[in-house]
Amino acid sequence: MAKEKKLVEAITSMEEDFAQWYTDVVKKAELVDYSSVKGCMVIKPAGYAIWENIQKELDRRFKETGVENVYMPMFIPESLLQREKDHVEGFAPEVAWVTHGGLNELQERMCVRPTSETLFCDFYAREIQSYRDLPKLYNQWCSVVRWEKETRPFLRSREFLWQEGHTAHATAEEAKERTIQMLNVYADFCEEVLAMPVVKGQKTEKEKFAGAEATYTIEALMHDGKALQSGTSHNFGDGFAKAFGIQFTDKDNKLKHVYQTSWGMTTRLIGAIIMVHGDNSGLVLPPRIAPTQVMIIPIMQKKEGVLEKAEELRGLLASNYRVKVDDSDKSPGWKFSEQEMRGIPIRIEIGPKDIEANQGVIVRRDTREKIVVSLDELQTKVGEVLEQIQHDMFERAKAHREEHTVVAKNWDEFKEAIAEQRGFVKAMWCGCKECEEAIKEETTATTRCMPFEQENLGETCVHCGKPAKAMVYFGKAY
Amino acid sequence: MAKEKKLVEAITSMEEDFAQWYTDVVKKAELVDYSSVKGCMVIKPAGYAIWENIQKELDRRFKETGVENVYMPMFIPESLLQREKDHVEGFAPEVAWVTHGGLNELQERMCVRPTSETLFCDFYAREIQSYRDLPKLYNQWCSVVRWEKETRPFLRSREFLWQEGHTAHATAEEAKERTIQMLNVYADFCEEVLAMPVVKGQKTEKEKFAGAEATYTIEALMHDGKALQSGTSHNFGDGFAKAFGIQFTDKDNKLKHVYQTSWGMTTRLIGAIIMVHGDNSGLVLPPRIAPTQVMIIPIMQKKEGVLEKAEELRGLLASNYRVKVDDSDKSPGWKFSEQEMRGIPIRIEIGPKDIEANQGVIVRRDTREKIVVSLDELQTKVGEVLEQIQHDMFERAKAHREEHTVVAKNWDEFKEAIAEQRGFVKAMWCGCKECEEAIKEETTATTRCMPFEQENLGETCVHCGKPAKAMVYFGKAY
Q: Going by fewer Cβ within 10 Å, which terminus of chain B is more open, N or C?
């Protein structure tokens, strides 16, 4: 029992220290390990399997909209990075530079891609000649590098995994539509698969991507009341096309610049899953993304027939669910703690008495509810319970967000709400960068987005009192 | 017709200039584009889709043997790379060095991984304490960088995509078994999926991986008689474990070093597919790896009902095969050329007269055979023809290899066979590095492998006349 206690005790409670709780979960659920490369992480099998499921689901959704995958070089020559002014200003301070190849110094240094707009533009300038070549709907799965000073597993690391979509279109309208379309793909994925409600909206000028005309975002609320930007979609207009000379001959025989978009999601999503759904026993994974959905745990497994029955049930369930048997030497209690720590949505306990009664016990990870079920109905019941968990997790996360979204009608209310970190603060804003910066300086809260679903909460800016232009979600953010 | 002629004429014939033919195919089949980053390639959708299918098939086979995926950092601190003496000597001359992060010079420079043995060892040294932690069967899919001087798309580029498996075991026997097991996975994959026969064997001391105790390889023969190393599997013994201090407490309570393996396959395989199966009309893809297996090409598509019928057939076939309709404005002849250039295994021609007769014409890419088939039997027939193509492609490639594998009993025969580039040359060898180097210097042929299936072709070394130790496959290689 000493060992079992250790596993559970090793997690700091989230109410006591949320940051430490997060670190404990990523370590104890064996999602990552720190590496000898400062600021970079090792993603372990349990973490990478979640990423594989995210990839599979997103990739399928991308392809349904006509997107094709490609692969671009990981290096960007300095002159290429500098081609678009805003873009280089945004990224140059945080890139890693390669200066030597083999034993020789390079004539021109190259950075490891922090994002690949410049490479795609360079490629599109060669590939696109005619309206017949449009649209180009390309995506790549890769890793990128940003030389961050402070790092945390999944949330901010010097190297992370992501996908970056880059499209080129004949018209501004089509580019705008694609930007919103992909934001919707992201939002649907988060809500349907990750059981994570998101607010869709537009970033302010200050917060938009370096080089973009407009940036759209989905913002999620973590358990501690902080916001997490979970996916972004950028409309570039023809800014990059002009900088890179990407032109095509249109149907009217005129030479025109293309309109472009880009959009990305990263391994940060795994951090979001942890912080939206986790509890003081560890990770809680939504069934649709869980690498293992069902863990069968035999009780008194040395008794004749128990392991055989467990294996029989695994075989039965394996055609519809991702299921494993824990037949290790550990005690059932230890196995329960592990299954809980790893966030496996369901465990099935099965022992000699259950077998005699032709039943098993389904235990939900999210509520710990125990459901005794006849083995004849196990297949159906497991499906129902998984669906129910997926549904309930979304509803709970949504209720949490609603409880933690407050309206601030004046500056005192705003300061108080932020100081207590109640969650999202909805407030009216004048649209000025100066006001936005002052709010950040005074409270550390940033504009998360101007939501598509605008509400009129008053006529004046919560900070300066000038006429309001938009309702904004504010919050402290990861 | 002028344009159609251009598409076909643009390929150099392989008999005239094989290297140029290869370059033409990768460009005209739209597999890659040259990038602005010297020595790196852009993998375009048609090329990347082949890689995705390779990944899917290999990944499934790996997981069936218990392998799990992880992700390691892309950077290796210089001190870590230097830990194993042979390894650093092998790789240091060809790595790219990162010296600056953001605006600051790094205290210690890091290379971009050329391979990740050192990172996995560093990780395993922390992860492995007890026999209970073994075996570790990890793999990662990523890109690696080697600063090559001469590059060719897929075959040799400064950055390429691959998978690298890294395992750790309690005993030398288990490591040896795993090395051979993965070589067999590679060989089966090449033969069953890529329709590419391979020779399995062991590399000589001179040709083995930097730091390995033994390297095993699968070698394939290209259409021009050159060999291509298509996958390798390395047994490290406990060499790396000793250099990195990877120790575990065994069941007998003694502290022991682990035994390790690594094994990899790369985007080079796409080059192999091109050079084993391609012809003077372009790419020929084995059905099991082809991103599109069937292209339906409507004839007189503006006539009523033709496009509808084509779409109906697509819908019918889509549940079992990867199928598309080419309903573009191009002429049927142009579409045929494109389908051939891209190596799509089957096209189905369907026009008004066919529809009237309730039939379609299946045309095989590999043999150009035309098969008239009733639309009622289309579903079944397409399956049969795809299987037949897969089978025939393997048999043709095997026959080609057998025709181009010659025995050299003496040095004159050897020199003649290599000079005429007849293919693999089987010969006896004394086992001395000096002899191996002399053979390479005099003929440019290298030892490809000492095949598992040894034959006794004589008692003396083909070069020096001393007693022979092994039968070796020699060849000029990519």
A: N
